[in-house]
Design goal:
By secondary structure, the chain is of the alpha/beta class. It has helices spanning about 35-45, 85-95, 100-110, 155-165, 225-230, and strands at about 5-15, 20-30, 55-60, 70, 75-80, 120, 140-145, 170-180, 185-190, 195-200, 210-215, 235-239. It contains five helices and twelve strands. It is globular, with a radius of gyration of 17 Å.
Length: about 240
């Protein structure tokens, strides 16, 4: 009987003049690394945000016993008439979750541009707990249990994997996202309490603005536990 192949974390990041262009996260057996490296290189070189001048790949072997397995959040969709209507619906969902300062939070989301990670924001005080406020906090080391090896980006599938891991982080009560891809106008709000709610449109076609916010509620001295989970704990997400 053959031993299962060891698993590796594969990360890709592409930038131009230090501005984030594209990124990807995979968890793969060693035998699949070459094909996925090739696919992600093609994605980085042909992204709607432009041609990069820097592409970084990082490959790390994972300890099997440290990998957690999570079930994907349930998915629902909200169709808006205009981006303004979509943003209003996002505010309404936040308010229904007991988050009072929804308008200010959505305004923060709209102002984000070129951040590699997410803003880690206190849901009540709106204090930014990101250790590096230019970079933000990155959710890393995650993948679907059926990774897709294509050069193109599947926005929905990859966002659902990320949102599921983020929703299970200690202290996180919601995540908000608008894609920074100028050709993709759908965003989402996600939480364990509501699942993964797609909202479209949240911006106009051709608009490169976008980013994500992780909403935190808890003690400030426990923020490091949230960041450690998001950035260090490997997670595989099943349908």
């Amino acid at each position: 009987m053959h031993e299962p192949e060891p698993l590796y974390s594969l990360k890709m990041r592409a930038s131009r003049q230090e501005r984030h262009i594209s990124g990807a996260e995979k968890i793969l057996p060693a035998s699949l690394l070459p094909s996925f490296l090739d696919a992600l290189l093609k994605r980085a070189m042909h992204h709607a945000n432009g041609e990069p001048d820097f592409i970084n790949f990082k490959v790390e072997k994972l300890a099997e016993e440290k990998i957690i397995h999570l079930k994907a959040l349930p998915v629902s969709s909200v169709i808006a008439e205009t981006p303004s209507d979509g943003l209003r619906k996002m505010r309404d969902i936040l308010e229904s979750m007991g988050i009072r300062r929804s308008a200010e939070i959505v305004q923060r989301l709209q102002s984000l541009r070129g951040m590699r990670g997410a803003m880690l924001l206190d849901a009540d005080s709106l204090e930014d707990y990101s250790p590096d406020q230019e970079r933000g906090v990155r959710a890393t080391r995650m993948d679907s249990d059926t990774p897709n090896c294509t050069a193109g980006k599947n926005h929905f599938a990859e966002a659902l994997v990320l949102a599921t891991k983020v929703a299970n982080a200690p202290g996180i009560i919601a995540e908000l996202c608008i894609s920074d891809d100028p050709d993709y106008v759908t965003g989402y709000i996600a939480a364990r309490s509501i699942g993964y709610v797609r909202i479209s449109p949240l911006k106009t076609h051709g608009n490169p603005a976008g980013g994500r916010i992780f909403l935190y509620r808890g003690r400030q001295q426990d923020v490091h536990k949230t960041i450690d989970f998001l950035e260090s704990v490997p997670a595989i997400i099943s349908a």
